[in-house]
Amino acid sequence: MRPIPVNWTLGAVLLLVLAACSRSTPEQALRTRITQMQQGVEQREPARVITPLAGDFLGNGGMDRQALERLLRAQLLLNQRIEVVLGPLDVRIDGQSAQADFTVVLAGGNGRLFERGRIHQVSTHWREQDGQWQLYRAQWGDGQQP
C-alpha cells in the first residue's frame, strides 16, 4: 500500500475545514437574503426581490405582496438605473423569527446622474420557513430628499 501524498491530505483537510466554516448562521443567512434583494433591485431582477416575501406580507398602508411587486415594476420602468445603498444592518434573531432595521438610500434616473432619490428608515420582520428567511412585515419612514 502506497502512502498518501502529504499535499493531497493537506488539501483534503483544508476542504473539510472550509466546508465546515461555510455553514452560515441564521444571521448570516438573513444578511445574505437582504443583500440578494438589494442586488435584485439594482440588477433589475424583480423576482429576486419578490421571492423572499411571505404570502401574507404586509407593508406600509396595508401594501401586500402584489402591490409591492407593482410598485417595484413601476420604478424599474421609470428608472433606467437604480442604486440601493444600505446603511448598517441591526439584526436581532429570536429563534425562527428576526428583525432587521436599517437606513436605505434609493436613487434612480435615466442618465449617468441620478435624478431622484429618497432616504428611508426601514424596519423588517422575518420568519424562517423551510430553511429560508421570509419577509412578512416591513415599515419604512416617509423618506426625504437627500
UniProtKB/TrEMBL annotation:
Signal peptide: 1-29
UniProt keywords, alphabetically: Signal
Protein name: DUF4440 domain-containing protein
Source organism per UniProt: Stenotrophomonas ginsengisoli
